[in-house]
Structures are given as C-alpha cells and as structure tokens.
User: Fold these one by one.
Assistant:
Number 1:
Amino acid sequence: MEKLGVIAALAALAQESRLDIFRLLVQAGAEGMTVGSIAEQLGLPSATLSFHLNQLKHAHLVTFRRDGRSLIYSAAYPVMNDLLAYLTENCCQGDASACGVGECVPAPTAVGEPRHEAPARSRLGR
C-alpha cells in the first residue's frame, strides 16, 4: 500500500463515527449491510451517515453494490489487510509473522443463518 493511501485510510478512520461504521461493516462480513441497517444500529441520521460513508469510500475502505433500491455497503478487506500489513511490516524486528498479525478473511454466511456478532458501540446514550 502506498503512503498516500495509508494516510487517507488512517484519516478516514480517525473520526469516531467512521470508525464505528467501519467496525460494524467488518463484523457484518462479506455480505455487508444496507444503509438503513447501519443507520439503525448506530443511531446516525441519513445525511450524516451518507457523508461518513462517502469519506470511507473515498479512502477505498468500503465498497457498495445496489440490490434493487437498496445500497449494500461492505468493508474492503483487501484494503484493510494492506493497511494492517503496512502498519506491521517492521514489527517484531522485521518479522511480522512472529507478531501473530494475520490477514482478515470474512467467513461466508449462509443465507438465513443467524449471525452472532457484537454490535458496534452505539452512539445512543453517550
């Protein structure tokens, strides 16, 4: 990953709502989440959510696809893994494998199969 891409990704994640959104999408896995589900989970108004999703999209940290009238957002796992690799390439005296840092690969979720993930920190009640 080039240095400018790293800076853009870190800048995008340096804001609390965007970090919450990204973590929620990572937890959601490859199937992603609709904009409405993200807004509901995090208690964000749609205009605010749209702004933050655009920032994450600009940093290439999320992708989206259209499903009928819905937009489904997903974490861009290859970009996230490149960012992690960049940040840890010199850890443990140059042997990143000794640090136990690996790649994140989202597990496929069977249709209709219940998922049990911890919800992202809610913005409600803060």
Note: The beta strands are 33-34, 62-67, 70-75.
Number 2:
Amino acid sequence: MSLLLVSDLHLDAARPATTRAFIELLEGEARGCEALYILGDLFEAWVGDDDPGEPGASVCAALKALSDAGVPVFLMRGNRDFLYGQRMAERCGATLLPDPCVAVLQGVPTLLMHGDLLCTDDTAYQAFRRQVRDPAWQAQFLSQPLAARQAFAAQARAASREHQQGLSETITDVNPRAVAETMARYGVTRLIHGHTHRPAMHALEVGGRPAQRFVLGDWYDQGSVLRIHADGEVLEALAVPGAGAAATA
C-alpha cells in the first residue's frame, strides 16, 4: 500500500469542485492507502473549531469516515488554518502533528513541515506568524464572536494577497540555508512540505550526504497528491481529475 500526502488544498465554499474532488479521493483511492497526511492549509481559512459551516462540515465528516474505515489520518496546521484545536481533530478522526515533525515513512525518517517556517527571507510574514501562533493571541481571538473572526480572516486573506504581490519569488520561496540547517538539525535526508505552491523534487546535500526535498502542489489549478509506495523508493506527484479553480460548477 501507499502513503498519500497532500497540502494547500485551500478548500472554500467558492470552489466547490475542489471540495468534491478531495472528498472523492477520500472515498476512493484513500480507502486503500496506508495513511493520509495533510500538511497544512486544508482550508482557505479556519477561524475556530466552533464554525459549523461548509465546506468544513462535509470535509470533516469525510475524513472521519476514512479514519473509521481504518486509515490513519494525520493533520498539520498551516498558515491559513493554524487555529485547529483538539475538537477539530476529533471531528476528523485525525491526529494533529506538530510543525515540524519527523515521521518514518516506508522506512525512511522524513521531516514533515507545512513549509512557511522555511521562508525566512519574508521577515514581515515571520513576524505575523509569531504573533498569531502565540497562545495568548489565539485565546483572545477565539473569544470573539464567530462573525468577527470571519471578518478578520477575510481581511487577512486580502492583506496576504497584497503582501505577496509586492514581493519577489525569491523572498516568498524557501531559503536554501534554512532548508539545509533544518534538515541537519533533525538528522534527516528527506523533507516533504507544502506552502510555496511550487511542486518539485529538489536534490541537495545535507551534512555531506545526498538528500531530497519534495514540495507538494496546491489545489488551485489541479489536485496534487504525493504517493510513497511500499518499497519506499518510488514517489509520484500526480494530478487529481476534477480539482481546480476553473471547475466551480
């Protein structure tokens, strides 16, 4: 059996075709996989576990059904859904993963990250990330009415788009030195992350050893899935039919 890894689906009510494609994956191929890893930004925004709206309700139910069928589901917070709590994990039947963390995938110790921590050249974003990950900030934010939190999320998304437009691709991508230092710190030669929306396999050297960095694709234009087969050697990044912003019917 294979392991499936996805990231950056950015599921949102405005893109129902993408949500349908992901649920079809959960009800289809994922039922025969060894485990499913979601490395952040499953949703376009998550303003608290008390939000009963869509597509959260449907996606959580589909993830819980997959977990109940015997497939372990692992969920990591991203920069859009960093407010996941234990209630969310229980709704999905999922295990929350710290970012970063090391998991042994098909026999290979692998560093899993959302990826935003590696974009160290974007100092303004890193400052914002430290602010919103602070437990005191989160407690104050979650104490607000749901409508106020939803309004804040909409404003934050607009500000993020404006911020990204004013930066070069180098600044919004990972910093190579940060990648090498992080992999060396965790003693691994394989890293898998998302966030940058630049799917690729990068060969590099860490501590004098050959290493690999796999970047998961986003689901704006097509659904991207990384499959790690049982032999631990073959990895494929393949599209999921029907996903993407263009198919919103």
Note: The longest helix spans residues 146-165.
Number 3:
Amino acid sequence: MDDASVAAVGKLTEALETVERARGHLYSFHQLTGSADATLQEAVAGLRDAGHTDLADALEQDLVGRNVLQGRWTYQVVEEYDDGYWSVFREHEQRVRDALLDGRRHLYEASMKDRERTHGRPGHAAVPD
C-alpha cells in the first residue's frame, strides 16, 4: 500500500469520524429537545394549577408537541440523517478501505504509531499484551 493512498484514506476516515461526532450532536439535539418538551409540559401543568389557564392553554396549543422543522419531530430528523447522509458516508468509507487497504482501519495512525513510539520502552508497545 503506497503512502499517498494510506494518507488519502486516512483523510476520508477522519472526515467520517467528524460525521460521527456530528451525528452524536444530532442525537443530543434530539434528546435535549425531548427533555425540554417534557419540562415545558410540567410548566404548563404548573401554570394551570396556579390558575393561569389562558397562558397554559396558549403554550399547550402552540408549543407542546410542535414540529422542530417543517413536518418533523427530532426523531424524524435523526432517522433521515441516519438513513441518508450518515449511512451513505459509512458505506463509501468502507468501500474505499476495502478497495485500497484490504479493509484495515486506522492504517495511517498505525504507521504513525510505529514511527513515533520508542521501540522497546515501557508504555510504547506496538500492541496490547
């Protein structure tokens, strides 16, 4: 495997890792929005219990259960991202690794580790014991 191919696949994998992080943030967005909606419902109940039914009704009718994007709750955003961009990105990264690196992962990092570690020193082993 030539160095240019290993470096290029390393960049592709780095891009996928960034997409994975973005996906994690999307799941955080999903969970935080759901949590906010549940807390909002508690606030609506509290306003209603305190006798502020008009304010509670307005919040309940306009905000509780509202779409975050046109026609979508957050789970639908997550599903669309997973089924579209994320899945396609992963498939392409895997196909390129299979074609150029026999499917091996993190080959760029493995070669960097071998270059940068101090052979024979404690804490610098090539692989786990």
Note: The mean pLDDT is 96.
